[in-house]
Fold these 2 entries.
Entry 1:
Amino acid sequence: MTDLSNPMPVPAAPTEALVIEAGRADRHYWRDLWRYRELLGFLAWRDIKIRYKQAALGVAWAVIQPTVQTILLTFVFGKLAKMPDGGVPYPLLVLAGLLPWQLFSSAFSGAGNSLVGNANLISKVYFPRLVVPLAALAVALVDLLVLLALALPVTALYGVPPTWRLLLLPAFIVLALLIALGAGLWITALTVKFRDFRFITPFLLQIGLFVTPIGYRTDFLPNWRDLLALNPLTGVVNAFRWCLLGGELDFYGSGLVMSLLLAAVLLGTGLWYFRGTERKFADII
Amino acid sequence: MSDQVIAVEGLAKRYRLGLAARHDTLRDTLSHGLRNLPRLLRRSGSEAAARPGEFWALRDVSFQVERGQALGIIGRNGAGKSTLLKILSRITEPTEGRVTLRGRVASLLEVGTGFHPELSGRENILLNGAILGMSRAEIRRKFDEIVAFAEVEKFLDTPVKHYSSGMYVRLAFAVAAHLEPEILIVDEVLAVGDYAFQRKCLGKMSAVAAGEGRTVLFVSHNLGSVTALCSRALWLAEGRVRAYGAAAAVAADYVRSQTEQARTDFDFRAWGGTERHAGRLLITGLQVNGGAPVMHREAFRARIGFRAQTAVEGVAFGIGLCSLEGTRLATLDSDLDGRRWSYPAGHEGWIELELADLPLSPGRYSLDLGARSGDVTSLDYLPACGLVEVQPGPRTPAGAVQIPGGGLRLSGEWIERS
């Protein structure tokens, strides 16, 4: 792309002129993002590799945590609170809810820490900063796929065979990713600007674990159902259950529409805020 | 028309003071917002007026570089060199002015950016290459060459945390040296590494500039390497261009201008701007000879004050004594004398170095200070952070005073053999 406002002829070499000016960083942004896609892959690969290299139990962590959470939530909501299961084995309800929740929480907290954790990169090398939270998202996606590969046999063991609905699951994974990205962009930019958000992130996730219907079904809570749908993850959790657990669950379309709308809003505002603060990252990090 | 590769016009960068040194907290923002609310509502005050708490790191900087030229950028600490490089590398945006770059840019503001200690040499080459903007295919193509240049064949699959500092730096530089940009931006990276390797890197860089028709921007405190490597030099002082021209002439003017007072007591707490404060350990001050004059062939004591921001292990301190041109004449590293220390977070203290017999000839010298930790990462580095004056002492031979310069003045046995 030659700079049209510059009347000087472009020199013989077949190179493009890059113009740096205040407020002009946007011009090549999306093209640069595409150009730096390999870096995105490398950063995700690095984070996955390091996580499993440093932890003694390695890959097992991706499994242990949701297993324990499934048992705990089944016990608290299913056994103690005796929430209705509608004929679905309770652990499966919880597991199907945990899948998108894990994806979200790992992407959200990963993104929140990503820029501060890569501060040396930000202050020494140019690349579209969006690469960093996107890499955190990719790491979360890999974790989800591992978990999903393990969850499917468990579902079959409980006597719930996979159906054609499973084919729609990728669409809902994408929806969960978009929600996580939208929220992640907000938290990333806010964490760079205000370090307080490092303490706020775990707190938000703790609240999220309960306002997202992971341990219970919203279709048996008519009074609360619409209120809970204001959480974009509610629609995703319901959709995951619908895909994984067969005929016992209704689709709850209005909740999903709400999810889609909120995802669009989160992503739009997240991108806007991130892009707005991004140019100052190197100055404040 | 000349073949201009870099054109910088009226470049300026304004920083808000305190913004970088201390991160915003929500509380500050909220209370500040509330206090300023009435003023905001009235919308008074113009944007352009210079406000207190702001400073211009660069002001009205313009220059051009032609294809194949190597430009050295010199100036004191805080003169705006790093800011200029950061703008040219697109890490930060200018406040005013514009830069036009024609060609693929690679910038090397640090050696081994993004290196991860847990990853092997092989993995770090791939990662670092991607960070510096190489494509996967390009890295693969140059992989063997990089490994050979770094001389680390045997340790390719060892995590780099087990590397010696020399190996680490060699590997990191090797990746960078194999970039094939049309414009290469280098900041002070040659300050590390052993001498032979520095020579090798300088050789590689001049080959890049002269032989392969690439354009190099090079920032260094070492005027020797600037004049050796660059045909032209840009001298920045307080954010403005003080001189721009033939490297040798600009360097000579620069040396002549160093009228800074030699001292024996230095406070580095606010030295060198903002970047140091992110570190794990901060060198806070230096006291030489307890305030007494420094004399040739007498005892020399240097007390380095420091504060550990976080817990640090195996810290080594170092002092470099350089000529005013920036050439290192002597290096004293505590780890080479077998001394390293560990400190808990928040610890403040002093480390004292004592030399019984200072061999530096009478004259003025520039000081480098540094601290690095056991895992070879630099904790704090203050190049050219102060001037000391060495005076003739009682044991200085009268002749040595009349012949100025000479760097280290050593005594030897002189025997006539027939």
Entry 2:
Amino acid sequence: MIKTEHLSKRYGALKAVDDLSFEVQGGEVLGFLGPNGAGKTTTMRMLTGFIAPSSGRASIFGHDVEDDPIAARSCIGYLPEGAPAYGEMSARGFLEFIADLRGLRGAVRRARLDTVIERLALGPVLHQSIETLSKGFRRRVGLAQAIVHDPPVLILDEPTDGLDPNQKHEVRSLINEMARDKIIVISTHILEEVDAVCTRAMLISRGRLVADDTPAGLEARSRYHNAVSLQLERPDQLEAAREALSSLPQVASVEIDGRGGQLTVFPAGSEAILALVGDRIAQAGINVTSLRVEPGRLDEVFRTMTSQ
Amino acid sequence: MSSALLPQPRLSAATAVHNVGAVFRRELAAYFATPLAYVYILIFLVLAAWFTFYLGGFFERGQADLEPFFVFHPWLYLFLIPAISMRLWSDERRSGSIELLMTQPITLWQAVIGKFLAAWACAALALALTFPIWITADYLGHPDNGAILTGYFGSFLMAGAFLAVGSCMSALTRNAVVAFILGVAACFALLLAGLPMVLDVFRGWAPPGVVDAVASLSLLTHFEAIAKGVVDLRDVFFFALTIACFLAASVVLLDLHKSD
């Protein structure tokens, strides 16, 4: 379990992290979400003991990160931002070094090294120096070192930043695979990642926690939640469609999105309006090519909540 | 929730040695993975020989001893030791790997000592490779081998003291060149503390106790006694204390500024 109480970090007058209190339980994949500079990395650095909090506390399985740092760090596997490593070392030498520092010995050490090398498919580059590796492989080496000791807590700072879509997919599958029996905390500013891997998302803005919810819960905060979007066959019927739909009492407003013949219909209450919208548009003799209920738009929630 | 692979509590002394050893091996390998160690050793050997035979007048003196060899070591170390200590911590900061190292379950002391020992091993190897000079002296005459061994020991201690200073300077900055310049300056100040040009500044007004205190800080004074073959435990203690103080300063500086 990760627990923080009133965790804060100040740099002079700047509050990088401001009074953050939360708990994470086993099996949760928590996503720190926020714009660049919101305090995600600073929070992770405090959890891993790399920087000391200005005030407040953080503990990992009851080990305070300041009072009992070695025990706290032993429970954590950490991928720092940008996956730093020793460039002149070979991938294998680097992983062996980390395994040594993690206190792995003998047969266990060999077995764990084999496991992570296989899991992250590092076989072909084991004897290459890390500085000559591609970004994707370098990130995988960083992930391998984070899980080499099979830690109960994984803290990954922007694990997919700068990777291509295939590599992103690989990293996300890996996280999902490990999620069952671990606490995983990832930071990201990529919204699709939250849906792809997280069971819980914390939205941070200027060091403060502005939302703590499931990804679906966050989406529900969007004004697009339960709205219905339509794609008309003929864009020149946009105005006619808007008039027809606006007259429905259950509809609060109708917005035209762009020039492609798209409409979004916002409900007045919490009632489902999909069938209603479908009927009315058919009555008006307008053809639609798609009609669907919006779950909500994360990017819109993100923008609204972090720009206040 | 717990994991079977979490490090079990072990004897903390054994863990400390294990951790220092891991950092030491990595660091030493890093010296030899880049040309740094080879360049250092080569330049050290060439300059040591050149100083001994030309400036020191090894042959002309007609004495079978290694004094003309050891007497130049402080000056060789002044420029060469900061070259091997400059990257100890500045590189870690520049590449960000310090974040990785400092979030492992090891203490700052273990990392500082492991790195320091690796650099010291590098310097010791270069020093050991000067053995042909000893063989030459042995071939030409009958030197006091005990005195020569003592000289080597003194030179080794001196290298250690300079490396500790260099480690501390490297902990101050993420720029290796700045670390080098700071290292040379700090080592120079420590060397000069015993020379008249520094002491005269104090002699005019300060009580003799202060002058003696400044003079006693001089690495040169302590080194010259050992280089002549006289082992005074106080000199050995002085070097050990210098090393300990500067390593402690490295730990404090890193603790304060590691994330900068």
